[in-house]
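Researcher: Going back to the complex we discussed earlier. I've cleaned up the inputs and rechecked each line, so this should be the final set. Can you rerun the prediction on the complete assembly and write out the structure?
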Amino acid sequence: MISSDTGVIADLVRHHEGDILRQWLDLQKRGGTLQTGRIGEAELTTQSGEFLQLLRDGFESDTADAGHAAFAPARETLAAISRSRAMQGFSPRETATFIFSLKQPLVEALNRDNSLSATAAARLMWIVTSMLDQFGLITFENFQRAREELISRQTREISELSTPVVKLWDGILALPIIGTLDSERTQIVMENLLQSIVDQGAEIAIIDITGVPTVDTLTAQHLLKTVAAARLMGADCIISGIRPQIAQTIVHLGVELNVVTKATLADAFTIALRRTGRAVTKVKAARTEQRRQPDEQDD
Amino acid sequence: MDRIPILKLEESLLVTIQVDMHDRLATALEEDLTNKLVSTRARGVLIDISALEIVDSFIGRMLDNIAAVARILDAETVVVGMRPAVAITLVELGLSLSGVRTALNVDRGMALIKRRLAEEADADDED
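Model: Rerun complete. Updated structure for the full complex:
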């Protein structure tokens, strides 16, 4: 029985495709899909038209199971649409509106068909509703999956970004720490720093804590551990970027930082350069002197 | 019994630990080094542990002891070539080897000892 039922639906969709699509788009617009500005009308029309066509193709193959192979293209398209909406920042409601607002046009198309008996119409309506519900679930699953992928990728990126070791000069490394320093991150930071010291043959490492929001006893201990490990490798550490509040906290906590500390990274770099036998001088002074010399010769 | 060779290089003693240290070997090294320091009147001790993959608290303390003994005998101790993993282990064990000087490799360690000795000589001259 079902086989002919889906065929009827397919026919119905084919005959009223324009009407259904128009009404569907209308409902989506009323639902506020376009207002967010994340998607253009042309794109929405293309997506809707494509999905309606694939849905009709699926119905033609005599099955009312959304998981059936006949609906595979429709499922894939829907999944792609859901994923792209998740990435574009659509809310779950906005994403679900896409599939659920198709229900009304389809049901109304059924109602308009006078040739159907009451029982047949009820049966068809049930098929349409249950199919769209199944597609709704697919939409949501894909939306959720895309969001989770996005979150896990961002987490990974953050952890990669948060522990760079920068070479400032030959033998001078800088380690700008951004964010809270917990045990797990300390481990990563320490390993990164020590490996860089070996790789680059660094003599001095500057740990900049400008981006660390708060320093408690535990954070201080982690910092000191890193410093001690670097020292064991034969590199000196300088801690820079200590903000006024943090300096006060450290003193109030009674933590002894037996390390060279500097207020800014620039100060720490100057010290590091001096220790490695270098100095920074102004070029301007030297240039004016050079320029003056030929003048004097002219005179 | 195995012993770790101690080489004399200019004014310093050079020890390269190439095998896994066990406790008896460590005690023997400590003893040999002390004797050698006295007999050669060396002014520096350079311990290369770049081949050492595992360090426990005993070895850590041995390094500290050697440095303390050497200081009494008026010699500077430099430990060089410590691996990152070893450094992390020692720190986690709470051994920061505060009495030991460190350098990245033998070259730098040697330079460090020479610089220290030169500084001392300068200070003596001023006196």
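Model: Worth noting: Chain A touches chain B through 19 residues (CB under 8 Å).
Researcher: Good, that matches what I expected from the previous run.
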